[in-house]
């Protein structure tokens, strides 16, 4: 299958629209169709086929065309070498951990993280497979350094963290992990690749819950792991083919559609920042406000993540100002 990838010489918006898409050869449609098939045609003599391969369309659990189109798009948007798309964000997390970790390995992970990460690492993998864990505040680099052990295989962070929007320094933590022979994975769901691309900040893996920003329509579930092909081939073989965490063709097609307006959806987050700043000027009592005051240079990946925090968390205030006043002010 020919790839249609637009490289970094094209803007993010162009790649969001065009990468992975092509004209349908049979109908001339300008969008690739949904391929709702369990199986694909085999050669007359299939005796040489690897039935566990994910590199050729054989059986949709091994991978299908809609999944491959979406993987191509996401690898481009994230600046990664390769991508595996699975059935949900948690499938992506568990797929990464299951394929990468072995008994006796040690994992350092964020104290502020999605609850499934805690259950997977600190309960399931720890109790069933004897993977050891240390939970730290990954916004504290010294705490991360102290948590590293000789058998540390992986550092997993989420930034901004869910739900408190804690910010961790991806590049600095990547340096700490790599200096100690460990890998770094980053859950990038709250930021999206529009605001932050962990691979470009030296992370080894980016994990996305496609259910959230990237799909953006609330009608499909999916998850993605982006990283080097040598690792993702292992994840495909173990977590997709053998554990069966494959995304459905329909959901892959829906998310492919949802990714088109991702840049405009993410850019609209600036409105939340404007609302928060305005409410501060009129003396409203904010009962929950994200860390927008830390935003200084929105061109910096780390600080862009602070800006996006304003859109990731509900903003509350005492009813001192009316909605009409707020809207007219911004």
Structural overview:
- The radius of gyration is 21 Å and the shape is globular.
- It has helices at residues 12-18, 65-78, 89-100, 115-129, 141-147, 170-179, 192-195, 229-242, 249-258, 262-267, 270-281, 301-312, 323-329, and strands at residues 82-86, 106-110, 132-136, 152-158, 183-187, 205-209, 223-227, 286-288, 316-317.
- The protein has 13 helices and nine strands.
- Helix 6 (170-179) links the parallel strand 4 and strand 5 (183-187).
- Helix content is 39%, strand content 13%.
- The strands form two sheets. A seven-stranded mixed beta sheet has the order 1-7-6-5-4-2-3, with helices on both faces. Strands 8-9 form a two-stranded antiparallel ribbon.
- Residues 291-300 have low confidence and may be disordered.
- With 330 residues, it is α/β, with parallel strands linked by helices.
- The chain starts with 11 loop residues before the first helix and ends with a helix.
